[in-house]
Each structure stands twice: as structure tokens, then as C-alpha cells.
């Protein structure tokens, strides 16, 4: 049994039954049968279905958003924005998917040629987290449908209502039976599903611990795996930057989704020349964030996803202070029902301390002062993660250095880093491997098959 708890009130939102062994077997059999039919479906049929799915999400936008807010605490405004991004994702693959599947022809030695074709592989298992309960799934689901594959979802235990709604949207759009199935199961069932012959690959977004377990299971079964794991993203500010905009964006990065986003900046690395100016503006912005009912339109930050997540962040702050960091303000537990805390800012963090190497998955920022661009890049890279990053500068040479030398899968220049359906998404180091979105995400779980043609031989040659 799964129970969803509203982190804003502590009240039970809903309960959901766990799928038993017979149910899992039936789901796998349906997935196999669905793939046999869907793999040969015309591209027009796939694009039409993606369009209908987008329409279903559009028609149910408010209900989808409210469910996410109730289950994991994000503000209603940000939940609506997440649903809108999902709609854009479905429409992106409906429009661009056929082009991503175009075969390519190359000449071969001896006068022949080869045609490289993208072919579907089969059922793909997705293990997804709670922080973006819809978008994380759509990043895998939309390209899966377009590719001719089928999807299986193991969602986080605290957002089973969101998972059920995703299944409902597929049914409302007229998706074939078994094309997508929500599996309400616990983590201990995942390895056996990965090992099943009918599942061809697995994708996971989550912690590095969960990623390691899934990767081990996939490795034993010799199956493809894509991992999008944690991040401790740097936001670097140089003297030529727009300091006001950089500080404002840094505040957004730390408090959106209550700081529970893998790719939003967590470490502010600021050149000494503008450190004081940035810190003043950043602190003022963090203090001004309105904490309140996530259903209200003017709320800037709601609760964290659970009391356990909130307490984990507070424990990290306590350890940082014990290791010499200064808590400038905030990072306090609020005396009310639910998983509430205030935003906070840490300075004087020892880069070699244990907490400095960790991801703080909550609304607390660490601010560092550096003397030059070399020190900024070195500090940015001095963590085991490499998911996203951002750099604030109007110097072309510095932009090139940041683009080339920061060890991350993504770097935003003078903007908030955000995923988009058109661009590749993913990281390096302990942040995972493989990519989602764009043609790259769709191709991860496809067979790139070479069809070889020899030189035509004429009679008498």
C-alpha cells in the first residue's frame, strides 16, 4: 500500500494498492504484445497519438497541477508550468519526431552504400523521482512513443496519484492497450523487471545510490541504461556580469521547487570584485521570498516534499556549521504542520569539507569568493557531480572558457539553466550518463541499424 501525504498539511491525500507478482507478469505480457503492434505503426499514427495526448493534458491542466501540489508541495504556479512543459514536450515530438527518424545514406568502399536506420527495440522501464512528477516521465515517454517503443513506469512512492493520472491521460487520448503502463511497485521489484527478457532497457532519474543499483541490475542483464542523477551545480559570477539579474536568478534557482531540483544552482561562485554586491542582493532576495500555502498564486515557496527531506537538509546545514561554515540567516524549521523550512545562505564553506562535496537538495545556498576565472572553474569542478552549470559574464573569452572547461553536461550563459525538449539533457561524473530530449534522447533506446548495399555488377563486368 502506498500513502500520499500532503507536505503542506501533513494530511493523507490518497492511498494506492501495490501491484502483486501476478499483476507485474500481466503488465509485462501486455507490454510485449503492445510492442509487436506498435513497432510497425506508421509515423503518422504516432504523431497523431502524441497530439491527442497533449490535448488531454491541456484539457486536464488544472487537475494535474493541483494533484502534484498536493502530493509533493510545489507551488501551484510551478505545477501548472510543469504541465505546460509536458504539453510542449508531446507536441515537440509530434512535430519533429519523424525528422529525427530519417535514415541516412553513406557511400562505402568499393562503390556501394549503406543506409543507417533507427529502429525500435521494445519495452523500456523508467524509474522516476517525485520532484518533477510529470516532466521527468514525459522526457522519457514522448520519445518512447515516437520511437515505436513502449513504456513501463515505476514512479516514486509519494506521487502515485500523479502516476495514475499519467495513465489516465494515455487512456483519454486513445492509446493502445499496453503502450504505457504505470506499475505501482516498490524499489525491491525493479531488479527482477530489468532482468526480464521482455524489458530491453532502463532509464532512471534519481539519487546516485539508486542509479548505482539500477546500473548494476542492467549490467548483469547486459541492457542499456540512461542515468540522470544528482547535481551540485555552480553559478559563476564575473565582474562584467549584470549583478542584479545574476542575483535575482540565483534566488529563483534556490527556491523554485523548494530547492529540490537537480539542475538549479546550489553553489554561488563569485569573483572577489563583485562578491559583496552580489551577496547583498542575493541575501535580500532570499529573505524576501514569501513562504506559504502552495495553492496561493503569490506564494514564492511551499514546503519541502516531506518532513524527512526537510530534516535531511537541516542536518546538512548543521554539519556545515560544525565544519566551519557561517550561516548568514535562515535554514530554520518552521513550527507548523508539514515539511516547512526557511531559505538560508551559507558562506565561509571549506571546499574540502564533507558537506561541500554533497548535493543540498533544499533551499539553502553556499556562496564562495574566488580571485579569478581559473579559481572559479577549479572550484566549480571540485565536486563529484557534473550535471548543470551557469556562468554570468559578458566577456566572450570567458564564455568560451566556461563552455569548454566546466565539467558538466550543460552550461547556461547569463540565464537560468532549464531543460527544454529541443536540447540534450544529462550529466557527467556521478551525475550519470546518457542523454534525454531532442533526437539524442529518442535515439538512446533505438537500434541504429546499417543496411549494406554492394556495388551493382553488370553482366560482362
Automatic annotation (TrEMBL):
PANTHER family: SUCCINATE SEMIALDEHYDE DEHYDROGENASE [NAD(P)+] SAD. It is an enzyme of class 1 (oxidoreductase). Keywords: NADP, Oxidoreductase. SUPFAM superfamilies: ALDH-like. Its EC number is 1.2.1.16, 1.2.1.20, 1.2.1.79. Residues 2-451 form the Aldehyde dehydrogenase domain. It comes from the Bacteria. It comes from Sphingomonas leidyi. One of its GO terms (molecular function) is succinate-semialdehyde dehydrogenase (NADP+) activity. The lineage of its organism: Bacteria, Pseudomonadati, Pseudomonadota, Alphaproteobacteria, Sphingomonadales. This is Succinate-semialdehyde dehydrogenase/glutarate-semialdehyde dehydrogenase. The keyword RNA-binding does not apply. Belongs to the aldehyde dehydrogenase family. Coiled coil: none annotated. It holds the Pfam family Aldedh.
Amino acid at each position: 500500500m502506498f500513502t500520499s501525504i500532503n507536505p503542506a498539511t501533513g494530511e493523507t491525500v490518497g492511498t494506492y494498492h501495490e501491484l502483486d507478482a501476478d499483476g507485474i507478469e500481466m503488465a509485462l505480457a501486455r507490454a510485449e504484445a503492445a510492442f509487436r503492434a506498435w513497432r510497425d505503426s506508421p509515423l503518422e499514427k504516432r504523431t497523431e497519438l502524441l497530439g491527442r495526448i497533449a490535448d488531454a493534458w491541456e484539457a486536464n491542466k488544472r487537475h494535474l497541477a493541483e494533484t502534484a501540489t498536493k502530493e509533493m508541495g510545489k507551488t501551484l504556479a510551478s505545477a501548472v508550468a510543469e504541465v505546460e512543459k509536458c504539453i510542449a514536450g508531446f507536441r515537440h515530438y509530434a512535430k519533429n519526431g519523424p525528422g529525427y527518424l530519417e535514415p541516412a545514406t553513406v557511400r562505402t568502399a568499393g562503390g556501394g552504400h549503406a543506409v543507417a536506420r533507427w529502429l525500435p527495440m521494445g519495452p523500456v522501464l523508467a524509474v522516476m523521482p517525485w520532484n518533477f512528477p510529470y516532466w521527468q516521465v514525459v522526457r522519457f515517454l514522448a520519445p518512447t512513443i515516437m520511437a515505436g517503443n513502449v513504456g513501463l513506469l515505476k514512479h516514486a512512492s509519494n506521487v502515485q496519484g500523479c502516476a495514475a493520472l499519467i495513465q489516465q491521460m494515455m487512456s483519454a487520448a486513445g492509446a493502445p492497450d499496453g503502450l504505457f503502463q504505470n506499475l505501482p511497485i516498490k524499489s525491491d521489484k525493479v531488479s527482477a523487471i530489468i532482468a526480464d527478457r521482455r524489458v530491453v532497457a532502463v532509464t532512471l532519474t534519481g539519487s546516485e545510490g539508486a542509479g548505482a543499483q539500477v546500473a548494476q541490475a542492467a549490467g548483469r542483464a547486459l541492457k542499456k541504461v540512461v542515468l540522470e542523477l544528482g547535481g551540485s551545480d555552480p553559478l559563476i559570477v564575473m565582474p562584467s556580469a549584470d549583478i542584479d539579474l545574476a542575483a535575482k536568478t540565483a534566488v529563483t534557482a534556490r527556491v523554485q521547487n523548494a530547492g529540490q531540483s537537480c539542475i538549479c544552482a546550489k553553489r554561488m561562485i563569485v569573483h572577489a570584485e563583485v562578491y559583496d554586491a552580489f551577496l547583498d542582493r542575493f541575501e535580500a532576495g532570499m529573505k524576501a521570498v514569501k513562504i506559504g500555502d502552495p495553492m496561493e498564486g503569490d506564494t514564492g515557496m511551499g514546503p519541502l516534499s516531506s518532513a524527512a527531506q526537510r530534516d535531511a537538509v537541516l542536518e546538512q546545514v548543521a554539519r556545515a556549521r560544525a565544519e566551519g561554515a557561517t550561516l548568514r540567516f535562515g535554514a530554520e524549521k518552521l513550527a507548523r504542520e508539514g515539511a516547512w523550512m526557511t531559505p538560508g545562505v551559507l558562506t565561509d564553506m571549506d571546499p574540502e569539507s564533507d558537506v561541500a562535496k554533497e548535493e543540498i537538495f533544499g533551499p539553502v545556498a553556499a556562496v564562495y569568493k574566488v580571485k579569478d576565472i581559473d579559481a572559479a572553474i577549479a572550484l566549480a569542478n571540485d565536486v563529484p557531480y557534473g550535471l548543470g552549470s551557469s556562468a554570468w559574464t559578458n566577456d566572450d573569452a570567458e564564455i568560451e572558457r566556461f563552455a569548454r572547461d566546466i565539467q558538466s553536461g550543460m552550461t547556461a550563459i547569463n540565464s537560468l539553466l532549464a531543460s527544454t525538449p529541443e536540447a540534450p539533457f544529462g550529466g557527467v561524473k556521478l551525475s550519470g550518463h546518457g542523454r534525454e530530449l531532442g533526437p539524442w534522447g529518442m535515439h538512446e533506446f533505438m537500434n541504429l541499424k546499417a543496411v549494406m548495399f554492394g556495388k551493382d555488377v553488370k553482366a560482362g563486368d
